[in-house]
C-alpha cells in the first residue's frame, strides 16, 4: 500500500518539483525560504496524497498546498519596503527611462534580472496570479482554486500584474521590438 | 460598458476567454479605439514578459535527496501506524534494526550506476530471470503497462542487429523499474532499465555528453559502462560490458527527446 502510494507520488508529483521550486523562489524571494517551502509543500503533499484525485491537475494541487504554506509562514510583503503599490505604475508608462535598472541592454542576463525585479515589485497576490497563469500555464480556474480566491479576482490581478510588467519593461520593448 | 470592465474584456479577448459574439464585439471596438488598442498591447507585452522573461532555475541537487529522505521516513511511519502501536512496541527492537538497515539501504540506493551494473551482472549469471520472454517490443510494453507506475518505451533494435530477449519488473534504488534485455552479435547483451528519477539524483559521473539535445550521464566502472538519460519523469539507463563507445552509441540510438 505504502509502496504504491510512494510510487504514484514519485510518478505524478515529483516531476513538478522544479515548477514548485521556482514559484517558491519568486514568492519568498530568498533561496533559503524557497528550499524550505518547497520541501515542506512536497512533504505535506505526500502525507495527504491519498486525497489527491487521480486524473486532476497535480501541479495545480501542489501549488494549492504551496501557496497555503507560503501565506501562513512566509507572509512578509506587508512589511516589505520593496513592494510598490500598483497604482504608482498604472499612470507612469516608460518610467524605466529614468531608472538605471531599465537601461536597455542586449545582455540576456541583465534583461532577466530586470524582469525578476519588475515581478518582485508586485504585491504577492498579483505576483502569484501571474506566476501561476502565465509562467506555469494554469487556467484561471485552477489558479483561483490554488490561491483560494474567485476567478474574477484572478482576472483583475492578472490584468494589473501584466500592465505593471509592460510598464516597467517598456524601454526593452522599444529598443528590441520583442516578439509577441 | 465602464472603462474598468472593458479593460478586463480586453484581457479576455487576449486570453481567448470570450464566446464568438463577445469576441467580435470587443474586437470591433478595439479596431476603432486607439486607447483600447494600447491597453491590449500592454497586456500582450506583460504576458510575453512573464512567459518568456522568467527562465526556470535548476533545483539544487541536494533538495530532492533531502525530500526523499523525509519521504522514506514518512513511508516507514505509515507502515508503523498500520502495524499498530502495541505490536509496534512489541517489535520495537526489530523495527529499530530494520530502520537502520533501511537507512543503509537508502544510502546505497542512490548509487544507481552500481545497482544497474549489478543488475547486468546478475542477469548474465542467470540470477535475474525474465518475467516475460518475448522478441516483440509492443508485447513487452503491454506487459509493463499494469506493473510499473510509468509509461515504458521498448525500442526495436533490429536495425542495430540487437533483438529483444525479454524483461522483468525489477527494483532500482528501492523503486519499481522496468528491466529488459537485448541480445546482439558476439554474445553481447544490453540491459536497459527505466524508473522514476532525475539526473540530479545521480552521483558524479565519469563523463557527461549531449546528443540531439538530450543530456547523457556516463559511468565507466571496470569493464562496464552505464549510460543514463531522462525521458519525461523517468530515467533510462543502459548497461553493458561491450566497448564503452558501443554502449554509448546504443544509448544515443535509443534515447528520445521529450
Q: Please, could you describe this protein's structure?
A:
The complex is a heterodimer of chains A (180) and B (258). Chain A is an all-alpha fold and 180 residues long. Helix content of chain A is 66%, strand content 0%. Chain A has two domains: 2-75, Orthogonal Bundle (Rna Polymerase Sigma Factor, Chain: A); 82-176, Orthogonal Bundle (Arc Repressor Mutant, subunit A), CATH 1.10.10. Chain B folds into three domains: 3-52, no CATH class; 61-107, no CATH class; 111-254, Protein Transport Mog1p, Chain A (3-Layer(aba) Sandwich). Helix content of chain B is 48%, strand content 21%. In chain B, strands 1-2-3-7-6-5-4 form a seven-stranded antiparallel sheet, sandwiched between helices. In chain B, a hairpin with a 5-residue loop joins strand 2 (175-183) and strand 3 (189-196). The longest helix of chain B is centred in the N-terminal third of the chain and has 23 residues, at 61-83. The relative contact order of chain B is 0.09. Residues 82-86, 88-93 and 95-109 of chain B have low confidence and may be disordered.
Q: Would you tell me the structural class of the helices and strands of chain A? A: mainly alpha
* Most extensive chain-chain interface: A-B, 56 and 47 residues
Helix content class of chain A: 55-70%
What profile does the largest beta sheet of chain A have? none
Radius of gyration of chain B: 26 Å
Tell me, briefly, the overall form of chain A: globular
- Give me the CATH architecture of the largest domain in chain B, please: 3-Layer(aba) Sandwich
Overall strand count of chain B: 7
CATH architecture of the largest domain in chain A: Orthogonal Bundle
Average per-residue pLDDT of chain B, rounded, comes to: 83
CATH first level of the largest domain in chain B? Alpha Beta
| Cα separation of the termini of chain B | 46 Å
Which key features would you list for this structure?
heterodimer; A: about 180 residues; mainly alpha; Rna Polymerase Sigma Factor, Chain: A; Arc Repressor Mutant, subunit A; 2 domains; 10 helices; about 65% helix; B: about 260 residues; alpha+beta; Protein Transport Mog1p, Chain A; 3 domains; 7-stranded antiparallel β-sheet; about 20% strand; elongated
